[in-house]
Amino acid sequence: MTGTGCTYMGKVLQQVKKMEHTLFVPEKSQARCALYISPEDYLRRMKPDGALKISVRAEVEGTKQIYTVAEQYDFAKPKIILTPNKTTIRRGQPIKMKIQLENPLKVPLKNARIRLEAARKPPTRQH
């Protein structure tokens, strides 16, 4: 089992923790093992907007069959809500944008900087 830090787009950054364990699983039964990842393990290795990806690879000793699974877990982070004062604008008209930040964390956000960029789709050329 491996815990890896990754960006919000899924790009792998740095291994957070790894564990190898051999299990014996009798017929028609289950066996379990656990990978404990503490905040100390991931905080210094993660980007603020990152996620934690857990990957498990299992190999059956007698048959050499390999099974894999991977799951990505996002951390609780502030939610940004944008609300325009109009749903449709005409060329040359201003638009106001209300920006709301919701903090789900148990600590206050300090020095939060908001950067808002507006882009437009370039006109298509007609031949």
Fill in the keyword field for this structure.
single chain, 127 residues, mainly beta, 4-stranded antiparallel sheet, two-stranded antiparallel sheet, 6 strands
The global form is elongated
Q: Could you give the count of β-strands?
A: 6
Q: How far is the first residue's CA from the last residue's CA?
A: 57 Å
Average pLDDT taken over every residue: 80
Beta-strand fraction estimate: 25-35%
**Sheet with most strands: strand arrangement:** 2-1-3-4
Using only C-alpha atoms, the radius of gyration works out to 23 Å
* Helix/strand/pairing category: mainly beta
The percentage helix is under 10%
List the quaternary state of the chains: single chain
Largest sheet: 4 strands, antiparallel
Order of helices and strands: EEHEEEE
Descriptive notes:
This protein is mostly beta strands and 127 residues long. The protein is 3% helix and 33% strand. It is built from one helix and six strands. The protein has one helix at 39-42; strands at residues 2-6, 12-18, 51-59, 66-74, 79-84, 97-102. Strands 2-1-3-4 form a four-stranded antiparallel β-sheet, with no helix packed on it. β3 (51-59) and β4 (66-74) form a beta hairpin. The radius of gyration is 23 Å and the shape is elongated.
SSE topology:
Elements: E1 2-6, E2 12-18, H1 39-42, E3 51-59, E4 66-74, E5 79-84, E6 97-102
Quick summary of this structure?
By secondary structure, the chain is mostly beta strands. It is 3% helix and 33% strand. The protein has 1 helix and 6 strands; from the N terminus they run E-E-H-E-E-E-E.
